[in-house]
Amino acid sequence: MRAARLIEHKKPLFVQEVPDPNPGPQDAVLRVEACGVCRTDWHAWQGDFSWIGLSPELPITLGHEFGGVVEEVGKDVKNFVRGDRVTVPFHYGCGHCEYCLKGVPNLCESVVIYGMASGFDGGYAQYVLVKNADFNLIRLPENVDGLTAAAIGCRFMTGYHGVVRGNVHPGDWVAVQGAGGVGLSAIQVATALGAQVIAVDIDNAKLEKAKQEGAVHVINAKQENVPEAIKEITKGGANVGIDALGIRDTVLNSVMSLRKGGRHVQVGLTTSEEGGMVSLPVDMITAMELEFVGSLGNPHPAYRGLLNLVASGRLNPKSLVTEEVGLEEVSRVFEDMSNYRTMGFHVITRF
Question: With 0-12 CB in 10 A as exposed, 13-18 as middle and 19+ as buried, what is 170?
């Protein structure tokens, strides 16, 4: 099969022929119809995330946002057969630890991200191996295609879970820091739930896209003081703040923009500059009884609600797909990400 392999950090991916994967007794092989090019992949390409253990041994096939068709299953797989249309949460779950058993496999004791660990090559390839298939495969509704599944694959489902973790209610003011893939996803989801969304970014084109996805106000962080602007718009502060980027400024802008009793949801992982550490206004958090919560991916059981909303047309992840590319074009997308020239989702559909 053909695959785009990461051989050396910050160098173009190498598209080459590699052996087709073979499933073990409990595994499945998927024919990949579409795979998103996520900024997390870009971080792996850069060599980031060593501080949280995401530094894969090279070479490796990246890609954790994929949808496709079951090509082959192991002899012990009971719930899936060849031809089933499926997607896969980007976070592999073992299926038997404390967290998997209580319905939060995104917190699995053995959690692994596809394309980020040895033995877990990702979806920048014609085929991908999914271990423990009965637990990790998610069946797609009939009217949800592979491109939509890839769009859901990481950024959209992460934005969805971030809104859920924010305990967003109809009418709430929700301020989303960063109008990239995760941010636009959170904007679309929060809007569908009846929230009033404010989008914050430094790129006017992205802010215009945020308005198309439902934001009722936008703020250019280069031109305005973000906390002051949000407090003026909301007459007191946001009920929920979601940081979809992960840099120091967006974390602090989100927390400083909350009203009393508000909740900040941290979705974006930090860059090499922060190394996972950001100072917080602890006295303010205490005195205003603010909440600071983390949000990772989307638990497998929560896919039912997400996919029902997509299948019914309430959510439209495909609207965030701005370009379909081939394997040979992924390195160019990474270069564009380095220069902040991307918007929405770039998805591989030509293998």
Answer: exposed
Nearest to 63 by CA among 346, 336, 322, 282: 346
348 residue type, one letter: I
What is the spatial distance between Cα 207 and Cα 184, in angstroms, rounded to a whole number? Answer: 9
- CB 26, CB 80: distance < 8 Å: no
What residues are paired with 60 via a beta bridge? 6
Helix (H) or strand (E) holding 219: strand 217-220
Q: Are 343 and 209 in contact (CB under 8 A)?
A: yes
The Cα–Cα gap between 266 and 261 comes to: 16
Q: Which among 66, 74, 63, 65 has a CA at the least distance from the CA of 29?
A: 74
Q: What one-letter code names the amino acid at 211?
A: K
| Bond before 105 cis per omega within 30 degrees | no
What residues have CB less than 8 Å from 203, skipping those under 6 apart? 179, 340, 343
Unique residue bearing structure tokens 């679309």 = 188
Q: Is the peptide bond before 59 cis (omega within 30 degrees of 0)?
A: yes
Could you read off the pLDDT of 137-161 as tens digits, one per residue?
A: 999 999 999 999 999 989 999 999 9
Q: What is the pLDDT of residue 53?
A: 67
CA–CA gap between residue 6 and residue 196 (Å, rounded): 41
Note whether 321 and 182 are within 8 A (CB).
no
Residue type for position 195: A
What pLDDT, on a 0 to 100 scale, did the predictor assign at position 339? 85
Chunked mean pLDDT (size 10), the chain, 351 residues = 95 96 97 94 83 79 96 98 96 96 96 91 97 97 94 94 98 97 97 98 96 98 98 98 95 98 94 86 97 97 96 95 96 91 92 95
pLDDT at 343 (0 to 100): 86
Closest-CA residue to 65 (of 346, 351, 325, 303)? 346
Burial 304-323 (b: 16+ CB within 10 A, else e): eebbebbeeeebebbbbbee
Q: Which two tokens stand for residue 248?
A: 């120091």
